[in-house]
């Protein structure tokens, strides 16, 4: 790829952790921050109009599991689809899930 692409001209940079979510109710993009990797974004994470407070708290066990489990162990877990995992294992609300879809 280095032979084909001019990396300097592309001005590549890292992505900020988190997501931009378009809400139909507000009709605009909101940042859903990751305060685990960027602690200064805690206020942004808590005040974003995406999901309720309970759903925001439910993100923590998911993040901790992903950050503390090896890739091999993650792939060795019982297979399931994403929706089932988010609803049954972590208890996210339908509204919170649908805002990310």
Detail the topology: elements first, then pairings.
Elements: H1 7-10, E1 18-23, E2 28-33, H2 42-47, H3 53-68, H4 71-76, H5 82-89, H6 94-100
Antiparallel strand pairs: 1-2
Tags for this model:
101 residues; alpha+beta
What pattern of helices and strands is seen along the backbone?
HEEHHHHH
Output the radius of gyration.
17 Å
Number of domains: 1
The coarse overall form would be globular
The average pLDDT value, as a whole number, equals: 88
Count of DSSP helices? 6
How far the N terminus sits from the C terminus, by CA atoms, comes to: 32 Å
Q: Into which percentage range does the β-strand content fall?
A: 5-15%
Helix content: 40-55%
Largest sheet strand order: 1-2
| Main sheet overview | 2 strands, antiparallel
Question: Which spans of ≥5 residues are poorly predicted at pLDDT below 50?
Answer: none
Task: Find the count of extended strands (DSSP E, 2+ residues).
Answer: 2
Structural class: alpha+beta
Structural features, described:
The chain is α+β, with helices and mostly antiparallel strands and about 100 residues long. It has one domain. The protein is about 45% helix and about 10% strand. It contains six helices and two strands; from the N terminus they run H-E-E-H-H-H-H-H. The chain has helices at about 5-10, 40-45, 55-70, 70-75, 80-90, 95-100, and strands at about 20-25, 30-35. A two-stranded antiparallel sheet has the order 1-2. A hairpin with a 4-residue loop joins strand 1 and strand 2. It starts with 6 loop residues before the first helix and ends with a helix. The model has no long low-confidence stretch (mean pLDDT about 90).
